[in-house]
């Protein structure tokens, strides 16, 4: 990860460190130094927050020096001490995302899960790059708050705390930043020089043998770096498999179907007839057929409708903001939740189909996460019942609606059941 150096007052801070968790409380510096050698980093900062410890690594070959302070370490410490406002209280915050504008026009991004920076959760980029990453991570769910500049308040994040960078750095009475020595990068003990190894080899072998020894040493170091990268990826995937609960990123069925019903617009605009209305997480789609009307009559009611080349069909696609995600409630067993939902639907004469959801094919070179839950797809078709009523019938732990279609006076509801 490329580092970025920014000036704050009289001091320079660095972003873009590679973070790794530490597990030996009594010898954190030594553990950090050993790990740094394995990943070929020569500078490190060690942070402790909320009973956790991490090391952030950098390389002098990329421009890092011992005169730099870690911006991520400084900001995370402030949040560890102050907490954040969410769920109606100012309280400790362990899972947060941050997007903060820097004085040089770039944006710093931080992603902290269980009080630990994600390995790549500390970087700087343009506003567009940071927002792309922020939305992607936010979609995973499980975050207590999003911390960011006030201009991001309209992005739709729940529990958004408007804070700028200045408010997240401790200050002296004169307004200058109150620095702490442990924020500063420290030199990792230098490894034995490769030339010393070559010299030792030359003492017992010819120069040709020393060259072979040097090549072998390089190959070994490269193998160690690759092993560490694979291990880091495995740890991240395993952590996310346990921590990221997809049902916590989706609204409850009642909220989803209420929003879908509200989005159902013109049924017969200008005499055109609604063939189908589809409500999905990110968009709404209406489709009409012309009947005995004209394009002009349709345009008078729906100016932005797209008419097909034949002139007899038209569609309108609109982006939508999803309803607020529901809490990550405890899951029920598959048979328990299916029986509960199916029994309710049977009471009003609605058939209910459930199928085991196939997992996505594995990505070559990546470790498949071992998810501690099962996913089942469901579908139902109902006539004469309002979507809000269907939402109430589907209200069970782990049940989420992904798509609602209105066609021929009937609602077709599709979704997922997450179960133990």
From TrEMBL:
Transmembrane stretches, start-end: 194-214
Pfam family name, one: PAP_PilO
Keywords, alphabetical: Membrane, Transmembrane, Transmembrane helix
InterPro entries: PAP_PilO
Keyword Transmembrane helix listed: yes
Name of the protein described by the UniProt record: Type 4b pilus protein PilO2
The organism's taxonomic lineage, starting at the top: Bacteria, Pseudomonadati, Pseudomonadota, Betaproteobacteria, Burkholderiales
Gene name of the record: pilO2
């Amino acid at each position: 990860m490329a580092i970025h150096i920014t000036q704050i007052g009289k001091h320079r801070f660095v972003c873009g460190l590679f973070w790794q968790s530490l597990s030996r409380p009594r010898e954190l510096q030594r553990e950090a130094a050993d790990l740094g050698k394995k990943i070929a980093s020569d500078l490190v900062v060690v942070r402790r927050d909320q009973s956790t410890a991490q090391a952030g690594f950098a390389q002098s070959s990329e421009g890092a020096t011992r005169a730099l302070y870690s911006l991520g370490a400084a900001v995370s410490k402030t949040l560890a001490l102050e907490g954040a406002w969410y769920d109606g209280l100012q309280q400790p915050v362990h899972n947060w995302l941050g997007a903060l504008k820097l004085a040089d026009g770039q944006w710093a991004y931080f992603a902290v899960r269980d009080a630990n920076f994600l390995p790549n959760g500390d970087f700087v980029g343009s506003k567009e790059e940071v927002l792309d990453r922020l939305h992607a991570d936010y979609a995973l769910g499980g975050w207590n708050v999003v911390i960011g500049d006030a201009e991001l308040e309209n992005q739709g994040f729940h529990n958004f705390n408007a804070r700028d960078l200045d408010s997240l750095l401790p200050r002296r009475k004169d307004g200058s930043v109150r620095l702490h020595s442990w924020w500063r990068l420290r030199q990792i003990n230098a490894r034995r020089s490769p030339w010393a190894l070559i010299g030792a080899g030359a003492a017992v072998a010819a120069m040709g043998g020393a060259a072979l020894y040097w090549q072998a040493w390089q190959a070994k170091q490269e193998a160690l770096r690759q092993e560490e990268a694979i291990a880091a990826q495995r740890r991240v995937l395993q952590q996310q498999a346990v921590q990221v609960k997809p049902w916590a990123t989706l609204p409850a069925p009642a909220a989803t179907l209420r929003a879908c019903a509200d989005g159902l617009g013109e049924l017969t605009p200008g005499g055109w007839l609604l063939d189908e209305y589809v409500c999905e997480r990110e968009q709404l789609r209406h489709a009409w057929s012309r009947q005995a009307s004209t394009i002009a009559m349709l345009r008078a009611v729906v100016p932005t409708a797209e008419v097909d080349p034949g002139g007899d069909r038209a569609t309108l696609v609109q982006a939508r903001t999803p309803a607020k995600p529901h809490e990550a409630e405890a899951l029920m067993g598959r048979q328990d939740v299916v029986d509960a939902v199916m029994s309710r639907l049977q009471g009003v004469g609605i058939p209910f189909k459930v199928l085991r959801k196939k997992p996505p094919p594995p990505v070559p070179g990546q470790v498949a996460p071992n998810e501690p839950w099962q996913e089942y797809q469901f579908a139902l078709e109902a006539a004469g019942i309002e979507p809000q009523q269907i939402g109430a019938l589907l209200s069970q732990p782990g049940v989420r609606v992904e798509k609602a279609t209105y066609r021929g006076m009937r609602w077709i509801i599709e979704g997922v059941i997450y179960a133990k």
